[in-house]
Amino acid sequence: MKIVVTGGLGFIGSHTVVELQNEGFEVVAIDNLSNSSEKVLDGIFNITGKKPIFEKFDLREKSAVQDFFARHNDVAGVIHFAASKAVGESVENPLLYYENNINALVYVLQELTKLEKANFIFSSSCTVYGQAEKMPITENASIQPAMSPYGNTKQIGEEIITDVAKVTNVNSILLRYFNPIGSHPTAEIGELPLGVPQNLVPFITQTAFGLREKLSVYGDDYPTSDGTAVRDYIHVVDLAKAHVIAMKRLLDKKNIEKVETFNLGTGTGSSVLEVITAFEKVSNQKLNYQIVGRREGDITEAYANTDKANNILGWKAQSTLEESLASAWKWEQKIRS
Ligand SMILES: NC(=O)c1ccc[n+]([C@@H]2O[C@H](COP(=O)([O-])OP(=O)(O)OC[C@H]3O[C@@H](n4cnc5c(N)ncnc54)[C@H](O)[C@@H]3O)[C@@H](O)[C@H]2O)c1
After folding, report:
1. Which of 107, 150, 222, 233 is catalytic?
2. What residues of the chain score a pLDDT lower than 50?
């Protein structure tokens, strides 16, 4: 069965391509390489012994999307990762984010509605919950006003899919990721942040490698156990596996609603200092860091209630924080060697 993975050469997309191929799916990856490299295909080949079909084009080009689906009208489902994802950049350049994250989504959905099998998985985010009132966060927690254009594109994306599903044959699963980290255990594929990393773990590994002088810990006066902000860090391979399970659910027509939503996290919150301590343990070195003031827009804590994914999808994150950090460290060392 043919599955299309948009953004298939990116961080989460490439790990999902591997898991799909491991399960015997034929994969067609679309990517414009704006935040990835064609070398990722070699990494996928080294893990699975197979390269996906790769089509390089920009999903903002409506005619290219139409042409693609006209040639691939036998696809069984689409997993849509392609998007721009830097929160700060989205504040500086909102139109880029609305164009890339919304127009591309609309063009793909337009073509999907013409297919016999219109199964769609969307990369959403826990940012839709903002600072939720209750921890752990369930899928029923209220959606808060977005704090950035990036966050807004995820909320609007969910709404577009829900509206479309009401009047078309599209069946969809919205996956709300918490904080994806780590790399494939083989270190053949992983995260390739461009420029200064926005996220904690790549910043830690780059600091440990000596690419950055020190890590800034934003705030130690949050109402958490040690004062630093708490997040739910999930290994990217666990996350990728959830996409395969979700796609099989749609293919087997096991979904109960036309749009279903699942949190994907570990269910455990870790503070920034806990992450640093765990990293120091697995890398066997001290990390240079300093506490600085809070960063605007950061929330205090977010971790998932994963009961729905556990019980309905039958999926549970397997990796520990230490395993995830060890894989991130292995990847950092490999790409710098
Ligand atoms: N990584 C996270 O922390 C996180 C958290 C929550 C949600 N998400 C969402 O998950 C998805 C995947 O994230 P990721 O971390 O793998 O990002 P990524 O940047 O590594 O992957 C996205 C891929 O899409 C490609 N792409 C972007 N715009 C495109 C376009 N117009 N046409 C074709 N290809 C295009 C990029 O080149 C890249 O390879 C995104 O939708 C992101 O918003 C990510």
Report:
1. 150
2. none
